[in-house]
């Protein structure tokens, strides 16, 4: 990632339509973009498409970007919204699986500390789409339940329910997969 001064110069060049600088911005933020899109879409091919669509949106709207603001949060919002749009356009949210008879289990911090980012992403793939989406929006990207409800066109209370069920499912997966409890 470029330092702040270099990034401001890079963005100024992108605003002027300099294709080489746009390519440089793309290369420098590609991994960041793909990582966010994979969290929401779970599938690398879908994430690649959403990330590329996001870059197109960035280059079309970069003229409105205010250099006094941080670029990454502005870009992250585009990535999240593009991923959610992609999901709405190409998939239907699956019905939530009722988690009945789930007894909350305590996970020791040492178990969680042993997990890599790849392990966590693998566990999250076991969540249904709505649970994974709400978990990402709330726990990772910091949106409120009200904002999530508005973004996904669901009641705030449903957002809270999906988050609770996602956490319960992840906790259950951690306790039932012996690979994570060694």
From TrEMBL:
GO MF term list: DNA binding; sigma factor activity
Pfam family membership, one: Sigma70_r2
InterPro entries referenced in this protein's UniProt entry, alphabetically: RNA_pol_sigma-70-like, RNA_pol_sigma-70_dom, RNA_pol_sigma70_r2, RNA_pol_sigma70_r4_t2, RNA_pol_sigma_r2, RNA_pol_sigma_r3/r4-like, WH-like_DNA-bd_sf
Keyword Transcription regulation: yes
Record's keyword terms, sorted: Sigma factor, Transcription, Transcription regulation
Domain RNA polymerase sigma factor 70 region 4 type as annotated: residue spans: 118-170
Family: Belongs to the sigma-70 factor family. ECF subfamily.
Protein name: RNA polymerase sigma-70 factor, ECF subfamily
Lineage: Bacteria, Pseudomonadati, Bacteroidota, Sphingobacteriia, Sphingobacteriales
